[in-house]
């Protein structure tokens, strides 16, 4: 039920700025304090509780206020659902004496109560997202997101002279990278693709002389049912001309500091920086969580004279070694079931290929941290924020399905390190790239690179090394051949970044209307069927799997 309580004041607020400007209300429910005693106010919101038919606890986005209903003037009949101590509210020192009450709307019986302690399933929250968003946590998350974005815009535009440029959503397929969504056109056999990032456009803007570009970019990736991923997401997309890695990293460190929430402990810069090689050696992953130690250790010397056959075999192989993780007080805290869990991981994931040892130990390191925390041991401080740059990635990696072929470790537009540039035409598998990732608490929240800005080098990478058809990128190659400046950039994953800041278990908790694990909108039931008649103009027909013909719309 929506109510408006007032004390003989004009219908519209006299506030010219702030959360109550240009609206019915004069104040929000959560902002009233003892200093407001004696003021005439108008409050608008939802009835949260009715107490003893005397008090209404009213709620809006800002909080709660207690309203006293004089019994000789107004009697409001609402079922008592819950009572709350007034002292639990920031506004608990005051109460509003109602002079008039206007019911603005009524509501049906809701599928769940709008109370933070009420547990709801994930699917129910997604189905009734417009109700779930009323919760104080979701209100906080979305309002913090807005504040963060505003501060980022201020920093980039006002402090460093960036230009906010929108780029197209309908584009064409990009070689390599994530799988893209396709959009049909009315021309037979021709399709658009939804861009997985504005990568080509931002490089073209550097050729165009924009010099410093950014946008809050919507990006799309058809990655199927990957955990905690979204088919559409938001990037803080940035590109600069005449810049090196140090310049980009310095910009991002300043951006994070400038936009960091005031209620959190300040962020210290510069962020630590390690190479990809060291990250893999010490942590077994290229995005290490540095909130805890438990680094990988080489204990090969200990077993130099071992008679244990499988250890001898490992050491006798080229580059063979024996790696281990030291778990502090592990024998004390890890139980038998924990040991079995670790053994099961080892049995199912550890193969006989020595070069996979570190990545698999990296997984075990994280699993050990989870098991210790499950036993009550503090391992990873949830209130700590450990930023880390990882640099000097391989420029190319062997393809999983065909190890004799190479694919881009980042994307095909990344430039080699200057000291490795001579290897690009002779030993490309040994080239390191000018690629840098920003890691926060073991999660990659951003990635970027200095780009190839010479058309001849870019064509060589596409055609000779990656075996891609360069005609797909003829527009970019022509642009690079038109006097492209040296340039580089980065993209920050806004959803992931914010979810870590607020401690959300999923990025869905910082997105207003997210998709489910399967990529579905449970509220509107998208994706939906399209009739055959609607598909005709796109020259498309559907081949229905056996047994699914009944799903086809008639």
From TrEMBL:
It holds the Pfam family tRNA-synt_2. Keywords: Aminoacyl-tRNA synthetase, ATP-binding, Ligase, Nucleotide-binding, Protein biosynthesis. Residues 142-527 form the Aminoacyl-transfer RNA synthetases class-II family profile domain. GO terms for cellular component: mitochondrion. Transmembrane segments: none annotated. InterPro entries: Aa-tRNA-synt_II, aa-tRNA-synth_II, aa-tRNA-synth_II/BPL/LPL, Asp-tRNA-ligase_1, Asp-tRNA-ligase_1_N, Asp/Asn-tRNA-synth_IIb, AspRS_core, GAD-like_sf. One of its GO terms (biological process) is aspartyl-tRNA aminoacylation. This is Aspartyl-tRNA synthetase 2, mitochondrial. Belongs to the class-II aminoacyl-tRNA synthetase family. Type 1 subfamily. The keyword Protein biosynthesis applies. The lineage of its organism: Eukaryota, Metazoa, Chordata, Craniata, Vertebrata.
């Amino acid at each position: 039920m929506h109510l408006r309580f007032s004390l003989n004041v004009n219908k519209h607020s006299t506030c010219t700025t702030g959360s109550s400007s240009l609206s019915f209300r004069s104040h929000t429910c959560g902002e009233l304090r003892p200093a407001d005693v004696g003021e005439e106010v108008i409050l608008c919101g939802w009835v949260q509780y009715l107490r003893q038919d005397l008090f209404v606890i009213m709620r809006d986005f800002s909080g709660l206020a207690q309203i006293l209903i004089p019994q000789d003037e107004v009697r409001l009949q609402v079922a008592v659902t819950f009572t709350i101590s007034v002292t639990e509210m920031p506004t608990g020192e005051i109460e509003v004496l109602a002079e008039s009450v206007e019911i603005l709307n009524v509501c049906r019986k809701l599928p769940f109560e709008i109370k933070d302690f009420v547990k709801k399933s994930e699917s129910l929250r997604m189905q009734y997202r417009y109700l779930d968003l009323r919760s104080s946590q979701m209100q906080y998350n979305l309002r913090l997101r807005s504040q963060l974005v505003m501060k980022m815009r201020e920093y980039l535009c006002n402090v460093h002279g960036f230009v906010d440029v929108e780029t197209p959503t309908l584009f064409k397929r990009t070689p390599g990278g994530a799988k893209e969504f396709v959009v049909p056109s009315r021309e037979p056999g021709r399709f658009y693709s939804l861009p997985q990032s504005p990568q080509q456009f931002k490089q073209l803007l550097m050729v165009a002389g924009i010099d410093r570009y950014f946008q809050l970019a919507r990006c799309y990736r058809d990655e199927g049912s990957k955990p905690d991923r979204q088919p559409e997401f938001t990037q803080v997309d940035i590109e600069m001309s005449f810049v090196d890695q140090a310049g980009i990293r310095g910009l991002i460190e300043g951006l994070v500091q400038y936009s960091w929430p005031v209620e959190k402990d300040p962020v210290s810069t510069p962020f630590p920086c390690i190479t990809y090689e060291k990250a893999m050696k010490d942590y077994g992953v290229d995005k290490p969580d540095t909130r805890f130690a438990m680094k990988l250790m080489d204990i090969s010397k200990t077993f130099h004279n071992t008679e244990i056959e499988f250890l001898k075999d490992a050491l006798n192989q080229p580059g063979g070694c024996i790696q281990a993780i030291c778990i502090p007080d592990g024998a004390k805290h890890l139980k038998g079931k924990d040991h079995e869990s670790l053994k099961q991981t080892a049995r199912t994931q550890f193969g006989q290929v020595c070069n996979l040892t570190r990545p698999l130990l990296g997984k075990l390191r994280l699993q050990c941290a989870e098991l210790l925390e499950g036993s009550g041991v503090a391992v990873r401080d949830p209130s700590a924020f450990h930023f880390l740059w990882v640099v000097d990635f391989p420029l190319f990696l062997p393809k999983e399905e065909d190890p004799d072929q190479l694919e881009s470790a980042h994307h095909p537009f990344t430039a080699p390190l200057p000291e490795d540039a001579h290897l690009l035409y002779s030993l490309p598998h040994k080239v390191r790239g000018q690629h840098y990732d920003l890691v926060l608490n073991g999660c990659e929240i951003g990635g970027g690179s200095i780009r190839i800005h010479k058309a001849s080098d870019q064509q060589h990478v596409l055609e000779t090394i990656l075996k891609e058809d360069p005609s797909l990128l003829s527009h970019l190659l022509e642009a690079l051949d038109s006097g492209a400046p040296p340039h580089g950039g980065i993209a920050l994953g806004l959803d992931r970044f914010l979810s870590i800041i607020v401690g959300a278990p999923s990025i869905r908790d910082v997105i207003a209307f997210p998709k489910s694990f399967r990529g579905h909108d449970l509220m509107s039931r998208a994706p939906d069927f399209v009739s055959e008649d609607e598909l005709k103009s796109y020259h498309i027909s559907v081949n229905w799997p056996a047994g699914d013909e009944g799903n086809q719309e008639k």
